[in-house]
Amino acid sequence: MGRFRLLGGAAAAALLFAPGAVWAQDANAALEARIALLEAELNSLKSEVAAARTQQTTQSQAMAQDIIRLEARPAATPVSAPAQREEGFRIGDHTVKFGGFVKVDAMASRYSGGDPANGDALRDYHLPGSIPVGGADEDTAMDFNARQTRFWLTTDGLVGGHKVGTRLEMDFQSLPGTGDQRITSASTPALRRAFVTIDNWLIGQEWTNFQNTAVLPESADFVGAAEGTVFARQVQVRYTRGPFSIAVENPETTVTPFGGGARIIADDNSLPDLTARYAISRPWGDLQFAGLLRQLKYENPASAVDDTATGWGLSASAKLKVGARDDLRFMLSGGEGVGRYLGLNFSNDAVLDASGQLDAIGVVAGFAAYRHVWSPGWRSSLIWSAQKVDNDVLLTGTGANRSAQSIHANLIWSPVTAFDVGAELMFADRKLESGLDGDMTRLILFAKYGF
């Protein structure tokens, strides 16, 4: 087309009337139409690019305004207790959540009856039956550990019209470590809870149905009110309907030999333990009643011992509101043949008599705790805990545990959500039927962060 425009009028006329001029004119028209179409498409593309740039500028301005508004918000106010995280992700029909906490303890302990051996659980937490008695007083011992650190995994979902959930929970507190304090201070992971729930049913390892964990006092110690509380985790099958629950649970019998001696863990039971619980929730607080019925059994062909007995227990617990923020917590438990359920097995379930028959040991235990919130983020608990064992000294001997008690006072601060730091001072003592006793004074400093 450019060549035609460069020619003069005469030359153009000659070309038009020359042979093939008609063909050239048609080709020129087609080329002009093609160029016009390309120019229209280019203009349309330019318009779209300009519109996109305008939209991007508008979105960037809106985002900048949102950032300015977020930065202008005041900082979050610290809360008085760690918040439960609700984030999760989906796998198939289930929502999966992971969480836990890291806890570090520093403990300064003084024992009137001699130091516990290196590796004894008493060095990590209050174990009433391990307080030394009869030894010499020694200087204060310092221990650091992070063994209460815990993690858990849960799933929840709806499968075939049924509500299904699971929980797996572990810590490092229950088993001895694989290293020592000289090099690695290693600790072995230990199973705490592992169960599945299907509608009203629970199957797996969980806190015993005889226990009410909701009333346990807030303490820097692993258990806190150790002497006076029901404390056991074990495999069970539990059914819950409203406020009532019933369960069959793993049985185990602990026995004192005739005349005293090392504890016998019988492991001979042929029937499960049976537990039942009823819970009442009101605006003023929560109240629970629990019962336990169990078989005690010990069989030893070598000594011709083969006997069973019946054990039973009752427990009442409550958490009562006091004012707007404080609360009172207590538990009272007792029975015969329930020693392993109370005070971390402070007393045995039964003792053998001279003829090899099992005689159930009576026990009563309890605690009371008052929790006071000083201000947002600051709180304290005052805890008293005790246990008394009704031994037949003619059977158990004078080396059996007779009583134990402890008192705790703490101050805990949560500067930000899920982070606690605090201190707790405790005094505990243990008495034997012989009259020998020993006590422990301990200061615990800790830091804990939940995730």
Topology:
Blueprint: H1 2-6, H2 9-17, H3 21-71, E1 89-91, E2 94-111, E3 141-145, E4 150-159, E5 162-171, E6 190-198, E7 201-207, E8 233-241, E9 244-249, E10 254-256, E11 264-265, E12 273-282, E13 285-300, E14 305-322, E15 326-336, E16 350-352, E17 358-360, E18 362-375, E19 378-390, H4 393-396, E20 401-416, E21 419-432, E22 437-450
Parallel strand pairs: 10-16
Antiparallel strand pairs: 1-2, 2-3, 2-4, 2-22, 4-5, 5-6, 6-7, 7-8, 8-9, 9-12, 10-11, 12-13, 13-14, 14-15, 15-18, 16-17, 18-19, 19-20, 20-21, 21-22
Instruction: Give Rg in angstroms.
Output: 37 Å
Number of strand elements: 22
Q: Give a quick account of the main beta sheet: strands, pairing sense, barrel closure.
A: 16 strands, antiparallel, barrel
The span between the termini is 76 Å
Ranges where pLDDT stays below 50 over 5 or more residues in a row are: 1-24, 62-84
Mean pLDDT: 86
Instruction: Please state the structural category.
Output: alpha+beta
Q: Proportion of β residues?
A: over 45%
Q: What's the arrangement of strands in the largest beta sheet? A: 2-4-5-6-7-8-9-12-13-14-15-18-19-20-21-22
Percent helix: 10-25%
Order of helices and strands: HHHEEEEEEEEEEEEEEEEEEEHEEE
- Tally of contiguous helical segments: 4
Overall geometric form: elongated
